[in-house]
Amino acid sequence: MIDYPITNYTYMCDGLSGYPHFNRIKKLIFISKSASGISQIGCLDEYGVISIWNIVEVSSNVTDYELNLCLGGKFKMALSYTDNLTKYI
Q1: What is the number of other CB atoms lying within 10 angstroms of the CB of residue 70?
Q2: In terms of Cα–Cα distance, which of 5, 6, 87, 1 is closest to 48?
Q3: Domain residue spans of the chain
Q4: Pairing of strands 49-57, 25-33
Q5: Residue 41 and residue 89: Cα distance in Å, rounded?
Q6: Mean pLDDT across the stretch 5-30?
Q7: How far is CA 32 from CA 44, 56, 72, in A?
Q8: What residue ranges in 21-65 does DSSP mark as E strands?
């Protein structure tokens, strides 16, 4: 029997309106970090959809309005750009 570790996610993208990825993520890469504390990551899925996400550290307690942020979570994500690369082939 294999024991899998219990993973507690800080932020879930499930249920976000306009979520661009419906296929497996193949590449995730760090892009930059600004002086204001906002970091950016890029994602690429199996079918050529790319997206750039801003990662922001949460400074206060989670409210009911942060539905995708787990209790005790310290970071949230905001989609800043998405495109389908197969449109350009």
Answers
A1: 13
A2: 87
A3: 25-88
A4: unpaired
A5: 24
A6: 74
A7: 16, 12, 25
A8: 25-33, 39-45, 49-57
Tell me the three state secondary structure of residue 23: coil
Structure tokens at 82: 């998405």
Mean pLDDT on 54-79 = 71
Q: Nearest to residue 75, comparing CAs of 49, 51, 54?
A: 54
Token representation of residue 44 = 């690429």
Contacts of 80 (CB under 8 A, 6+ apart): 40, 52, 53, 54
pTM over 0.90? The answer is no
- 88, burial (CB in 10 Å: exposed 0-12, middle 13-18, buried 19+): exposed
Q: Which long-range contacts (CB under 8 A, 24 or more apart) does 53-62 make?
A: 53/77, 53/78, 53/79, 53/80, 54/78, 54/80
User: What is the chain's mean pLDDT, rounded?
Assistant: 78
